[in-house]
Amino acid sequence: MKFAMFCKSACLLVGLVLSLACKAQKNTQMSKETQERERLIAASQAGALPLFFDPLVPATPTVTPGTFSNANDFLVRKGLPNFFNKAKKKQPLVIGYIGGSITRGINLYRMQSAKFIQEMYPNTKMQFINAGISGTGTDLGACRIQEQVLQYKPDLIFVEFAVNNAFAEGMEGIIRQIWKANPQTDICLLYTIYSGQTKTYASGKIPPNILGLEKLADYYQIPSVHMGLEASMLEKEDKLLWKAPAETQTDKIIFSNDGTHPVEAGGNLYAQAIARSFVKMQDYAENKNHELPKPLLADNWEEAKMLAPFVAQFSKGWTKFDPNGLADFKQFAGWFPYVMKAEKPGEYFTFKFKGNMIGFFDIGGPEVGQLTLEIDGMKATIQKQAGTLVLKTQTENNTEDLINRFNFYCNNRYRGQAEFFELADGIHTVKFTVSDIIPDKKQILGESQSADITANPAKYNKTVAYIGKILIKGEILPMN
């Protein structure tokens, strides 16, 4: 009897130990996953990197064109004639990269491809521009390309926005602005991909979001590179894992840890596709003006602009600060020479314009709140437009929607972000006002990100707004 009770107790004890061990292992795994997610969020959502970069630093991997061969890897079309013409004559060149977080990040493809291009012409002086902004698409790209790229008179611009809102109207706006500024600037479209799209490529098809961009590339005869095709084929051959934790033990290539942002090996594959296209296109060298035909899309973003806040009128409660002077905001100095800040509900900014899109480029963080929008004196109801980051506005009634500037990525960190609203074409006076309603930030962050807001609730219990730029599609008009 006693022996039976002893055995039962021992079994219970062993079971408890095993249960605790499993729980500990699970918590450790969850902790690692949480830490990795936090690292990826921080890496992809931080502020501006230096605008000009040097790809020949020792940490940049060297890539070659590799041996991959597929007719759909890249499409030359009319190539990059002006770039190669100047490169072969050893004339100085400026090369711009504009895109989202995959362009912004270090060794995700940009550094490797730039190094390959520079080493392809070692005696040609080249300057490289990094205009990648995490989490943004062609809508903000069309607004900011003039200030962040075109003013530096680039000879070649890589455009990468396939995984971030492949909004075709925005892409056409980018293309048309580039050639309006200089018809000799060459353009190359880059198509990155995310989880699930490898199967589309492996089946011989093109992901739907990229198809819309390819129509523009074909219409304007711009070369394009399907950078994810080789990785898709390697995955199909069971030689590559598209998504795997960093500590995974495998003899296969790990492309990414999160399903979108490549690790160095994945970035090398992306860059190799660019290298192959450059080897193929180098014989297309001549001095040539690119023709600008009539637009393919009637509502393209050719007239999109990014303007300094002073074009608007701000109420007295707003203050102006230099992001260079504050540790948390210094990272945004490359984007915003100054930022307007309001802390109290009721503070507003207003402007008048002619066109059909308004917006702002702002900074998110723990203390940010919500705004309301009035169009021509009427409070606006806001409705998401499926498939893009653009917001539709309706003003048929006086109901009110709030524009929440706090999101999942604002947990004890600051990030650049943008918001857009489409209006009926015409002359409008718009007014954004700081709301007194604080969003449920704890619910937005979720349990996995509750530590800081629980420990420091006062930091989050605020209604702050930061405005770095005014965005429009059209023309600013003087207020009456």
Report on the architecture of this protein:
- Strands 10, 11, 12, 13, 14, 15, 16, 17, 18, 19, 20 and 21 form a 12-stranded mixed beta sheet that branches.
- This protein folds into 2 domains: 47-281, 3-Layer(aba) Sandwich (Rossmann fold); 306-477, Sandwich (Jelly Rolls).
- The chain contains 13 helices and 21 strands.
- It has helices at 2-45, 81-88, 101-104, 110-120, 138-148, 168-181, 197-202, 208-220, 229-236, 264-281, 441-445, 451-455, 457-460, and strands at 52-53, 74-75, 93-99, 126-132, 156-160, 186-191, 224-226, 240-243, 253-256, 304-307, 313-314, 319-321, 339-342, 348-364, 370-375, 378-379, 381-384, 391-394, 403-404, 415-434, 465-477.
- Helix 4 runs parallel beside helix 10 and helix 5 (138-148) packs parallel to helix 6.
- 31% of the residues lie in helices and 25% in strands.
- Helix 6 links the parallel strand 5 (156-160) and strand 6.
- It is of the alpha/beta class and 480 residues long.
